[in-house]
Amino acid sequence: VKFKSKFALAVIFTAVSASAIAGKDEDQQIKFRQSAYTFTAWNAGKIKSQVVDHPETYNKDQVIAAANAIAAVANSGLGALYGPGTDQGTGWKKTRLKPEFFEKPEDVTKVALAFRDESNELARVAATGDVGAIKTQFGKLGEACKSCHDKFRAKEE
Amino acid sequence: VKFKSKFALAVIFTAVSASAIAGKDEDQQIKFRQSAYTFTAWNAGKIKSQVVDHPETYNKDQVIAAANAIAAVANSGLGALYGPGTDQGTGWKKTRLKPEFFEKPEDVTKVALAFRDESNELARVAATGDVGAIKTQFGKLGEACKSCHDKFRAKEE
What we know:
Low-confidence stretches of chain A: 1-22
Largest sheet of chain A: none
Shape of chain A: elongated
Structural class of chain A: mainly alpha
Order of helices and strands of chain A: HHHHH
Number of helices of chain A: 5
Helix content of chain A: 55-70%
Distance between the termini of chain A: 51 Å
Radius of gyration of chain A: 18 Å
Oligomer: homodimer
Strand content of chain A: under 5%
């Protein structure tokens, strides 16, 4: 079993290094964070659909899973994907990170903590099944997202 | 606050619909699942580094966060991203999903449940801080990944 296990790992991580994380380190970081936020957008979209746009489709377990997924992203240590120089480069696409990100560390900390705290609170509220409270907290998470985008993300070209 | 909240949501989801989920629905599903797995690969890479390759760098909180992130992906309802026809199409890149995926629903269920169960078990074991047990369980998750890749993912072109 040990050999099989090691073999599986070798195969998987050879595949990873040959595709998902190909390219120079800065571009890898950009690709990973673009993936993290796109996965987040999918989950946020599900919550928006079920608690804002079409509350008749609300499914408690699905909203809990989506909120937990967003919180897991927010708690995953994304800071490691914002190395020096990563305001330039291409992951899945050209990064939109503004150079200001590296000039305003206090503002970065503030938006990062807001994303973490509002996400964890959303996961907590989602578990209660109180749709009104989930909607309110989802709005707060949206403001945390927007605050970072306004400060540190360039407009779509 | 309500208006501000709604405005933030509108801005965020306009941005999402204009970029992350642009294109036809099949391509959106492919992009979301590629994002989910790339985010998973980043977290698996951190665990591999800290418990397999460089155990002297083991950080309990970081491994817990990474394991929770993988489990959250596995529990997020990825099945919704495998709609009919999504063995063709381009998300961030051309999909490698084999047509066999749609011909062997029992095998799909089997690999999906293995991914979910081994991920949840890894999150449970990570919380104990027992590095040997984490390594063993990480190997089991690797086998679950490999099993799906072997059956349903085409080789890199």
